[in-house]
Amino acid sequence: MAMAAFVCGLNLQARKERCQRLRLCMRESDGVRTAPPTVPEALNMTIKESIRNAVLSGQRAMRVDVRSGETDPDSPIYDEMMVVTVAAQAVDSMSTMLGEESKILIVSDLTTKVDLVATRLVEASTNLSQSKLRVVAIPEDAEGFKVDVDEDLVVILSPTNQPGRSVTKQVRQIIRAAFGRRTIVVNQRLDSVVGVNADGSEKRVGMLPVEIGKFEAAYVWEMYQIRKKGKPTAKLEDLDMVLIVHRKYPEPICIFRLDTMDRVCSLVHECGSTLPSHKNILTIAARLMDG
């Protein structure tokens, strides 16, 4: 069975409106795991809780991935300020755990100017101030990149590889410069799947630095909208399947199936602490459809 999986997927405006109005629920029989919230709910509280739990358990290198229409650059409703808001929640949870003299370095790969990113970070948080922040753009050449002595938290914001433009090398250099400090990578798109090769392997836009591969997935919310290839879909209800990958640390990474009619989630697979690949998602979807 040929299928296509899209992170966020089709008819994004309609899905955005539903996420703002409705809460995703979980079947009682699966109550041992936290049901994935809607994106606004995740931004309000869940990301903060997850980062705090990860830090208190000793994690120093973390990643946060929130994939919705508003945070996906390939979506017609993409909003860079929503990505900054995701980062603000992660940083906000950390700011009260740093020393009074500690500063925060944000390295942004967004097109938004760094001064606007700094302003939005402060507006979207409860504990941040401009005096605590230094926001810089990801450099074309990061060799010799420096992290100031008092910068105890480094956040790499939406590092993105594109055809003809790779920032993998710069990201590796920044991570090395931040060695020993708490580091968070938010919504990285360094190895996004852009297709399938002739041998069935995933075609990716670039490479994920091995260092990020070792980062703890402190918070994950990704929606995959799945349909059979060639099948047109105009509404969320017309999709063959909707899967949500969710993790609220320290719970395992879980895959939930969303009933698009009643908005109820059912737990279908646990991944431990390893993020599932695009191929894993399609394999699970095929198994569910055949079952």
UniProtKB/TrEMBL annotation:
Where in the numbering of this chain does the DUF1995 domain appear?
45-269
Q: Which InterPro entries does the record match to this protein?
A: DUF1995 (IPR018962)
Q: Which organism is it from?
A: Rhodosorus marinus
Q: What is this protein called?
A: DUF1995 domain-containing protein
